[in-house]
Amino acid sequence: MRAIEEGTDFIETDILSSKDGVLICFHDVTLDDTTDIAQHKEFADRKQTYDVQGVNTTGFFTVDFTLKELKTLRVKQRYAFRDQQYNGKFPIITFEEFISIALDAPRVVGIYPEIKNPVLINQHVKWSDGKRFEDKFVETLKKYGYKGSYMSKDWLKKPAFIQSFAPTSLVYVSNLTDLPKIFLIDDISIPTQDTNQSYWEITSDSYLSYIKDYVVGIGPWKDTIVPVVNNYLQTPTDLVSRAHAHNLQVHPYTYRNENSFLHFDFHEDPYQEYEYWLKEIGVDGLFTDFTGSLHKYQEWTSFNQSDYNNASKLLHQIALLVSSYTKA
Asked: What percent of the chain has a predicted confidence (pLDDT) above 70?
């Protein structure tokens, strides 16, 4: 809601599922780091170890709790250096509640939900009608009227991008909806969770040529586009230009104001970072934790013809006054 107030075009969320098949907004597959689950002794026996993208992961998984149980938890800030005053005040929200926030906005605000960890969800959550996580995801979007290809009339009324790191999920949902999709790309060391393909394979020209039939763009981790060594930017790769050559948009993630996330080249100035990525690298969109900063940057750097005309008129009036004074 704050992002909407600050001018965001889209609000982004990751979608997971509860044990009873209700889609929820949550980033981690485990509840440990961003909820008060540790304080709920009634759930102490729920800790499990599951394979998550080839890694044995231990914790309290969302898929082992019903929505009613999840609603008893309260969320908390992950980073100690960020504002902690909201810890314990808000519950986990459902996908439908998230959509309502966008639809209740005083202007058109798009949504950008992610099909998160579909392999894990489909392994542990079974719907009575035999459908998959991806089916329920698209059904929810359709229920609230999200439809249409990119920039179509229907899409412009209720804009939405569907994002995922799992290419098979994107291919699957392409048969369910014509909403635009974005293929997320992780760090160079992490293979795709569903097809076990390397970063180098999924960013090759042959793969971009294949995936463009199903998606309108890619969403890479920004440090894979411009490598970083010792917190200094290195020579940019050609991923953006090659993606554009395949008519694919590029929406990197995630831009943050804190110095711990800003590379030295930007001198602790997030506006320099936005300038670099939008003007020099030429990306088409950005995921940011700080909507207000990006929106203000856009306002300050956008050319407005009416402002230019007004400034010209003012300067002309000043010149006339100066001229009159000089003659007098």
From this structure: 96
- For the chain, the first-to-last Cα distance in angstroms comes to 58
Q: Is the pLDDT of residue 328 over 60?
A: no
For the cut 90, the answer to whether the pLDDT of residue 192 exceeds it is yes
Closest CA to 189 of 13, 54, 73, 20: 54
* Residue type at position 186: D
Length of the chain: 328
β-strand pairing of 10-17 with 228-229: unpaired
**In terms of Cα–Cα distance, which of 318, 315, 278, 314 is closest to 298?**
278
The helix (H) or strand (E) run that includes residue 96 is helix 95-103
User: Which residue is listed with tokens 């044995």?
Assistant: 56
Instruction: Give the residue carrying structure tokens 């800790």.
Output: 47
Distance CA 76, CA 84 (A): 8
Q: Please count the other Cβ atoms lying within 10 Å of the Cβ belonging to residue 189.
A: 8
Full-prediction pTM beyond 0.90? yes
